[in-house]
Sequence to fold (335 residues):
Amino acid sequence: MKVLVTGTAGFIGSHVAMRLLERGDEVIGLDNLSDYYDVNLKRARLARFADQPGYTHVTADLADRSAVEAIFAQHRPTRVINLAAQAGVRYAAENPHVYVSSNITGFLHVLEGCRQHGVEHLVFASTSSVYGANTRMPFSEHQPTEHPLTLYAASKKANEVMAHSYAHLYGIPGTGLRFFTVYGPWGRPDMALFLFTKAILAGEPIKVFNHGRHKRSFTYIDDIVEGVVRTLDRVPLANPDWRGDAPDPATSSAPYRLYNIGNERPVELLRYIEVLEQCLGRKARMEMLPLQAGDVPDTEADVTDLVARVGYRPVVSVEEGVERFVRWYRDYHRT
Fold:
């Protein structure tokens, strides 16, 4: 297939693009190389595609309507994976307009490209953050998600309902994937594992919110990638049993589906730090702090639907995943 992957200089996007290339797909990669974090890291990710003949890169911003239209018109992708977004839950509090421009306006341009050029399937990134104020565990796609606690989560919730409207109006098959706390090699420098590793190696204290007592469904990047690619290959169908008087949020009478993709075994943050200490051979100096505004105490993924649909569930343990990250970090930073 010819697949347009947005955000290929990003953490998840670069891994997904590489996986598609390795199996023989042609990839059109799009990224604006924003300076939200170290652009050199983004360029290093892209450099991995240098010897991949099936990769074509376009430097453009999803918020640039004419640029996105030109990409669809020139390359005519068969399918699309939208992973480009302004990331960072806390960054949204100070830069709300950036989130709307990238995550909402940019996503509209992707939807229009799919509509105008008959794309077979759109897979797009959502987030476990959409569960917001929900406290019923584990989080299920069949629960309502009407109370996001951050603008980032709200923008991703908007993506879900926008994609559904296009599936309903124009028959564009759309699948949203709610990612749960992704980590691993080539990760973002603003993510906890990256920040913790850098600080511990420098002998500096790490900030541990909620006194480390909250749990997360930490999910290794390879598990995420396998789920994304398998989902891409399974075009959603309308649910014939869907009812408007008892609507199921995860399915529709249109060709549309939502899936959780995350580790079913949540790990307490203090255990996550303990594993990191073991891999680094150093103890962390911890500054214990209360839960941050917008954070939820716990996340736990119910991936029953993903397993049933694509026959796959995340399998990499935190112990193995953190060790792989540390090996990459030491190699990349020559530490």
In short: The chain has a mean pLDDT of 95. The CA atoms of residues 34 and 61 lie 9 Å apart. The longest strand covers residues 121-127. The chain has ten helices and 13 strands.
